[in-house]
Design the sequence.
């Protein structure tokens, strides 16, 4: 068996650091151009240099998304962008467009080329064709079933890697090829600017009754016709491994450092746990699955991997939020006093859930808070405020501090 890579998202430097700290083998991110997430901060050239240096010091990899569908006006800037990224040290480009694929070979011949899920690869013939053109990896369409992946693995070259999304938000359109956002808002989903109208609530209007709206309800909450559930394959690592998947990809470059930390940690432990004892009767430790309930998410599903499981969330358009990240530990505890940076409000006396870089969470009691002026305070109400927090147990640097919602 091949142990799959855990591939984590990073929309900014903070999320990148969280991915490395909590166990990613590789991180995918975008520069300031040509990535499919314009809502993220993304990485300047200087930040990209720093990210690659930090990752390589830890023997981890950085993949750069160049997977928008560029217009004619975008093409002249592409070769220099690719050359600069190669000089920064990226290990691979993730590409959707054939013209960009050929440009990358000329501009940066030593950088691997991975075919984006935007390429819609769902069969072995397509995978082989990209391999013959020079692709090192194919990121399969999210609509691909596990049995199809296994067949594909058997019919493609052994050195062509398979990457699959295993966690996160799913698009209602095939491989993200959607026009709804363009039609309704003018924001092009295929250039990284999707407004996510698939998450909106819809009503029906009869043409002769203008202004009179009728709900088309499947649940009391209203009608969400296109609202996909979130993908979660944490309990199916053995099946993914046996199908021949080389890389387990977590969606979420537009999400927070907290999301990246928790999801990376969960999949890191799930993969390591299975390979420590790859028995036929393996079952995931419950605490790992529970971690994924501590991030904001829509109702989970296994997507298309096992066939026709319903993929739409019709009850509501929002998230399930059981926990909030309230702080990050900047300096490890000394005499049970940790230096923290606050992110959301919490109070002295609160029970806090600590997720340290080793990934095994535990609870502490916030016993005392002192601000930068040396004043004792009862609450932490100001985002990014630096505080000294006394607890009943030590906390290590890099820990994420969260609180259960009441």
Sequence:
């Amino acid at each position: 068996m091949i142990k799959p890579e855990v591939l984590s998202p990073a929309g900014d430097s903070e999320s990148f650091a969280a991915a490395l700290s909590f166990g990613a083998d590789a991180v995918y991110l975008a520069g300031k151009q040509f990535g499919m997430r314009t809502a993220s901060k993304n990485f300047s050239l200087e930040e990209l240099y720093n990210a690659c240096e930090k990752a390589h010091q830890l023997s981890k990899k950085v993949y750069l998304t160049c997977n928008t569908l560029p217009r004619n006006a975008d093409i002249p800037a592409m070769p220099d962008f690719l050359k600069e990224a190669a000089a920064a040290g990226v290990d691979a480009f993730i590409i959707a467009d054939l013209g960009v694929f050929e440009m990358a070979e000329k501009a940066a011949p030593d950088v691997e080329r991975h075919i984006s899920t935007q390429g819609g690869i769902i069969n072995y013939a397509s995978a082989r064709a990209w391999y013959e053109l020079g692709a090192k990896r194919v990121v399969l369409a999210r609509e691909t079933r596990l049995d199809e992946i296994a067949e594909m693995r058997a019919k493609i070259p052994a050195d062509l890697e398979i990457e699959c999304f295993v966690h996160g938000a799913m698009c209602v359109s095939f491989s993200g090829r959607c026009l709804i956002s363009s039609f309704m808002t003018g924001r092009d989903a295929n250039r990284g600017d999707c407004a996510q109208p698939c998450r909106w609530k819809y009503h029906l209007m009869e043409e002769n009754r203008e202004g009179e709206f009728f709900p088309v309800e499947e649940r009391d909450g209203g009608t969400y016709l296109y609202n996909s559930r979130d993908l979660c394959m944490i309990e199916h690592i053995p099946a993914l491994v046996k199908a021949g998947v080389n890389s387990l990809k977590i969606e979420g470059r537009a999400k927070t450092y907290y999301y990246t930390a928790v999801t990376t940690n969960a999949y890191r432990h799930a993969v390591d746990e299975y390979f420590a004892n790859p028995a036929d009767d393996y079952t995931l430790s419950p605490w790992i699955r529970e971690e994924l309930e501590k991030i904001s998410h829509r109702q989970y599903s296994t997507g298309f991997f096992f066939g026709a499981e319903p993929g739409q969330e019709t009850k509501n358009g929002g998230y399930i939020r059981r926990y909030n990240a309230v702080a990050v530990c900047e300096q490890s505890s000394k005499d049970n006093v940790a230096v923290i940076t606050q992110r959301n409000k919490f109070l002295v006396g609160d029970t806090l859930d600590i997720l340290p870089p080793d990934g095994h969470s535990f609870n502490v009691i916030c016993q005392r808070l002192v601000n930068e002026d040396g004043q004792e305070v009862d609450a932490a109400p100001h985002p990014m405020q630096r505080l000294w927090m006394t607890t009943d147990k030590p906390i290590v640097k890099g820990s994420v501090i969260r609180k259960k919602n009441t």
Remarks:
- The longest strand covers residues 323-334.
- The radius of gyration is 22 Å.
